[in-house]
Amino acid sequence: MQLAATRMFTDDVDGFVAFYEAATGLTAVRLHPMFAEIRTPSGTLAIASTATVPLFGDSIAEARANHTVALDFLVDDVDATYRELHGVIQVFVKEPTDMPWGNRSLLVRDPDGNLINFFTPTSEAAQTRFTSEGRDEKLER
Question: In which domain, by residue range, is 50 found?
Fold first, then answer.
């Protein structure tokens, strides 16, 4: 099994796409005016209009209602990312901070209020978890 994408529903697809393109430096692939994808080597962030929700079932999702999920983006230098995002991010939740599990993390909110964690592994154990060697070892288990 493979996690193919994380999908987020929003009332403003164009605004969301612009935000995530600026925040990640990646260009979205627009599959439809109501749907886009930000593709990375390790996963895809799918952005869908709330107008698509009824296609899956009535009231199954609601924009701006998430309080349980955070998107984690691995970056080379979280402090440099922090400086670069000052013109993009409106809500900084927590400035770059060293976490006890070996990452340096920056927490922000996207335009719909979803939590985003930009992080850089700083400990040897954390760095190993995010190398191809560490990922291959997990897949073998």
Answer: 1-55
